């Protein structure tokens, strides 16, 4: 039974469950959408005046107001931590990112966002909050395993996945969390295993802190199964640095730098910094990796005022000629890596501007919403990379068409315009619900990709007419949603809310942009 909450000055309208969401752009009434499983708010929309509270106290006062809805006993500050505060100068809004904690231990992926308008009023809450953790006595017990034993358990298991003990890029570490998996909560260690040999992997493990069992695991590596000439023979100009009588592929004009290395067909990273004697570069893979990284940096800087993937100018490092005939490109948590392809399935993968932008967007997502790379949140992670890949390489709505199957014209990895053409669903009713592909992270990205295409270009889909708003406004909405509203376990329904709220922030509650967002998600069956 859902509880009802009667605001003292506002009428409450409750939408039960994910499927009951409908937008109320003007927030004339308080609207609460409850999580189907935990019966706690996962969305609150209203205009709430803080009555004199300032700064962080606005957030604490707001959460105190909904204390009973979250089923919190005691001090709300014991259940949340403020992990980030951002002000959007364009909209004069403030956006707080919170982390749920239990007895001082963070709950993995359970983050929330609270949003404040230009007048200082709270307008919305998004995220997931799990209540009643006191009922699980195991969470109060001290761990039987220490960090070192948890790491050993994860390494032992991953050896079975890849056939031998990996050669780690960095020493694995374990961090203690409350971890929620398949309706159960555990005291668990999160362990990231990042390696290149015997094959590239970035595995996330969750180890029960009492039993040492593997609760969950998944591989987070995303696979895309001066002057110089690029992979396709086109001439590019890009910034390099002169060192003595030699030029190196290092650009010092953007953030803290853009650097391009070669692995010389081996698997050590980052490899050797690329050099040239006359500053006319003929290594097409290196030319494209460098120039495309610069173009992607420029896009996020010029369009969204973001200084590199972390917002603070982090060095963008790329390595080309990784391994031999390697048909992949990936972001490994610290840098980009490109294979040369086998010449049949792929050309050198750095030759695709959209591929480079796609992978670097994974880095942006990792530093903002942190969308967990499984199931619906993972599909949104992939979709965000496809969307911004298409925004940077803006001549079409295809992904990887320049470097995929060079012997076959008109082919691509995916299409935002027509996901079904490449076997991906274009409507929520057709979503994949199996366990392959980390729960369909690449497959189901087509649903949100189609919504983004319709939002930008318009069209009729499943009988719903969408009036397009153009690429520029579409990109603004998705970037605002990614950096301010989405949280690690956001699903498709949360994506719709985040897009509506972002459009409201940017263009106004009654704008054509808000109308178009609602229509686009209606068209792909996301409520």
From TrEMBL:
<dbReference type="Pfam" id="PF01447">
    <property type="entry name" value="Peptidase_M4"/>
</dbReference>
<keyword id="KW-0964">Secreted</keyword>
<dbReference type="GO" id="GO:0005576">
    <property type="term" value="C:extracellular region"/>
</dbReference>
<feature type="active site" description="Proton donor">
    <location>
        <position position="442"/>
    </location>
</feature>
<dbReference type="InterPro" id="IPR025711">
    <property type="entry name" value="PepSY"/>
</dbReference>
<feature type="active site">
    <location>
        <position position="359"/>
    </location>
</feature>
<dbReference type="InterPro" id="IPR001570">
    <property type="entry name" value="Peptidase_M4_C_domain"/>
</dbReference>
<dbReference type="InterPro" id="IPR011096">
    <property type="entry name" value="FTP_domain"/>
</dbReference>
<dbReference type="Pfam" id="PF07504">
    <property type="entry name" value="FTP"/>
</dbReference>
<feature type="signal peptide">
    <location>
        <begin position="1"/>
        <end position="28"/>
    </location>
</feature>
<keyword id="KW-0862">Zinc</keyword>
<dbReference type="InterPro" id="IPR050728">
    <property type="entry name" value="Zinc_Metalloprotease_M4"/>
</dbReference>
<keyword id="KW-0479">Metal-binding</keyword>
<feature type="domain" description="PepSY">
    <location>
        <begin position="144"/>
        <end position="217"/>
    </location>
</feature>
<dbReference type="Pfam" id="PF03413">
    <property type="entry name" value="PepSY"/>
</dbReference>
<dbReference type="InterPro" id="IPR023612">
    <property type="entry name" value="Peptidase_M4"/>
</dbReference>
<feature type="domain" description="FTP">
    <location>
        <begin position="79"/>
        <end position="129"/>
    </location>
</feature>
<comment type="function">
    <text>Extracellular zinc metalloprotease.</text>
</comment>
<dbReference type="GO" id="GO:0004222">
    <property type="term" value="F:metalloendopeptidase activity"/>
</dbReference>
<dbReference type="Pfam" id="PF02868">
    <property type="entry name" value="Peptidase_M4_C"/>
</dbReference>
<protein>
    <recommendedName>
        <fullName>Neutral metalloproteinase</fullName>
        <ecNumber>3.4.24.-</ecNumber>
    </recommendedName>
</protein>
<feature type="domain" description="Peptidase M4 C-terminal">
    <location>
        <begin position="369"/>
        <end position="526"/>
    </location>
</feature>
<keyword id="KW-0732">Signal</keyword>
<keyword id="KW-0645">Protease</keyword>
<dbReference type="GO" id="GO:0046872">
    <property type="term" value="F:metal ion binding"/>
</dbReference>
<keyword id="KW-0482">Metalloprotease</keyword>
<keyword id="KW-0378">Hydrolase</keyword>
<feature type="domain" description="Peptidase M4">
    <location>
        <begin position="225"/>
        <end position="366"/>
    </location>
</feature>
<dbReference type="GO" id="GO:0006508">
    <property type="term" value="P:proteolysis"/>
</dbReference>
<comment type="similarity">
    <text>Belongs to the peptidase M4 family.</text>
</comment>
<dbReference type="InterPro" id="IPR013856">
    <property type="entry name" value="Peptidase_M4_domain"/>
</dbReference>
<keyword id="KW-0106">Calcium</keyword>
<dbReference type="InterPro" id="IPR027268">
    <property type="entry name" value="Peptidase_M4/M1_CTD_sf"/>
</dbReference>
């Amino acid at each position: 039974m859902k509880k009802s909450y009667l605001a003292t000055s506002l009428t409450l309208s409750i939408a039960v469950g994910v499927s009951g969401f409908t937008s109320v752009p003007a927030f004339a009434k308080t609207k609460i959408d409850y999580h189907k499983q935990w019966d706690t708010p996962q969305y609150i929309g209203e205009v709430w005046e803080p009555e004199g509270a300032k700064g962080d106290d606005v957030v604490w006062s707001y959460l105190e107001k909904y204390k009973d809805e979250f089923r919190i006993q005691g001090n709300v500050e014991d259940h949340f931590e403020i992990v980030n505060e951002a002000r959007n100068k364009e909209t004069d809004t403030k956006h707080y990112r919170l982390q749920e904690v239990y007895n001082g231990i963070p709950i993995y992926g359970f983050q929330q966002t609270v949003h404040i308008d230009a007048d200082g009023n709270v307008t919305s809450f998004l995220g997931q909050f799990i209540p009643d953790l006191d009922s699980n006595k195991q969470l109060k017990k001290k761990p039987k395993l220490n960090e070192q034993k948890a790491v050993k358990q994860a390494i032992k298991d991953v050896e079975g996945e890849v056939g031998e003990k990996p050669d780690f890029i960095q020493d694995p570490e374990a961090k203690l969390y409350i971890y929620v998996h398949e309706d159960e909560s555990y005291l668990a260690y999160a362990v990231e295993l990042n390696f290149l040999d015997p094959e590239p992997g970035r595995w996330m493990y969750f180890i029960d802190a009492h039993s040492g069992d593997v609760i969950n695991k998944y591989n987070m590596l995303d696979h895309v199964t001066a002057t110089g000439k690029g992979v396709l023979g086109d001439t590019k100009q890009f910034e390099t640095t002169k060192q003595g009588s030699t030029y190196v592929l290092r650009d010092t004009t953007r953030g803290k730098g853009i650097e391009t290395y070669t692995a010389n067909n081996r698997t050590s990273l980052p490899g050797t910094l690329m050099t040239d004697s006359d500053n006319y570069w003929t290594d097409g893979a290196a030319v494209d990796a460098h120039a495309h990284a610069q173009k992607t940096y420029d896009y996020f800087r010029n369009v969204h005022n973001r200084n590199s993937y972390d917002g603070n100018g982090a060095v963008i490092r790329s390595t080309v000629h990784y391994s031999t005939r390697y048909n992949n490109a990936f972001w490994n948590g610290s840098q980009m890596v490109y294979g040369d392809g086998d010449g049949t399935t792929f050309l050198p993968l750095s030759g695709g501007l959209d591929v480079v932008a796609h992978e670097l967007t994974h880095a942006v997502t990792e530093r903002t919403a942190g969308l967990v790379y499984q199931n619906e949140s993972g599909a949104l992670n992939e979709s965000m990379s496809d969307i911004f890949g298409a925004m940077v390489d803006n001549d079409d709505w295809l992904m990887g068409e320049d470097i995929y199957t060079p012997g076959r014209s008109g082919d691509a990895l995916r299409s935002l315009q027509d996901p079904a053409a490449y076997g991906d669903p274009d409507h929520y009713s057709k979503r994949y619900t199996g366990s392959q592909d980390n729960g369909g992270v690449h497959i189901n990205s087509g649903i949100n990709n189609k919504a983004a295409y319709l939002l930008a270009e318009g069209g009729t889909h499943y009988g719903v007419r969408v009036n397009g708003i153009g690429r520029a406004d579409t990109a603004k909405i998705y970037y605002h949603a990614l950096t301010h509203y989405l949280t690690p376990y956001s699903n498709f329904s949360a994506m719709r809310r985040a897009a509506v709220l972002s459009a409201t922030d940017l263009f106004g509650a009654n704008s054509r942009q808000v109308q178009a967002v609602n229509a686009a998600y209606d068209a792909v069956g996301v409520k």
